[in-house]
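Example for tutorial group B:
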């Protein structure tokens, strides 16, 4: 099935998309050039493939093949009937092959459902370890995975996001700092009081564009106060 999936991706090749894809991928990555909606559709159609074949896809030098593998993990993790054992397997595969993540969108596609979904209601220590990692994309996973807590967790789950954001607030890597702003933006929509309190302390450390993103769902008075600092 893995070979059929790769064939489906190549069949969706669109020469007009290749320049945009090449601008997005990491140095050394190969690319097919295709619309993302076609990639997502192919991943959904092949989501039942055995996980060892998904693992094999991650050995590919081609961006879309690896992106497709992470899309499959995401589809599986979001399934209504996903069991704890399968959720554990998806989580382990994501973390064990994190070195095959070379772009921020691979993180954003799978980290919330696969990593955040597995850690919902559990000890968040693995995220703290990721936040301390030297690789920027592991740090992006640390702050992107808790988006699942924002959407699906209780107050205790949401509270885990703020220590991670504090750790990464001054991160010099744009792909990480931008993700901090996104996480805080969504946290502000869920718990504006806690988010405002966090930003009152840590907002001055955030780059200005990140702070603007972080306050965007807060009440206007809080936005104005925090941006005026």
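The residue assignment follows.
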């Amino acid at each position: 099935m893995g070979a059929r999936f790769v064939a489906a991706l190549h069949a969706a090749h669109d020469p007009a998309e290749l320049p945009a894809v090449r601008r997005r991928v990491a140095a050394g990555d190969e690319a097919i050039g295709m619309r993302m909606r076609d990639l997502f559709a192919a991943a959904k159609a092949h989501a039942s493939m055995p996980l060892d074949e998904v693992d094999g896809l991650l050995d590919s030098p081609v961006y879309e093949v690896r992106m497709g593998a992470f899309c499959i993990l995401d589809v599986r993790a979001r399934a209504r009937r996903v069991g704890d054992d399968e959720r554990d397997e998806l989580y382990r595969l994501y973390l064990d092959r994190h070195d095959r993540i070379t772009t921020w969108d691979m993180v954003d596609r799978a980290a919330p459902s696969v990593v955040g979904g597995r850690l919902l209601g559990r000890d968040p220590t693995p995220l703290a370890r990721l936040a301390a990692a030297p690789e920027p994309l592991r740090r992006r996973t640390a702050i992107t995975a808790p988006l699942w807590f924002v959407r699906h967790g209780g107050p205790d789950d949401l509270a885990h996001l703020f220590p991670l954001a504090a750790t990464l607030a001054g991160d010099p890597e744009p792909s990480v700092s931008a993700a901090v702003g996104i996480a805080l933006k969504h946290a502000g929509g869920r718990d504006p009081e806690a988010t405002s309190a966090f930003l009152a302390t840590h907002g001055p450390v955030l780059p200005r564009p990140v702070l603007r993103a972080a306050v965007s769902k807060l009440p206007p008075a809080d936005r104005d106060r925090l941006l005026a600092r």
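Residues 1-119 form one domain. Compare this with the pattern of hydrophobic and polar residues in the output above.
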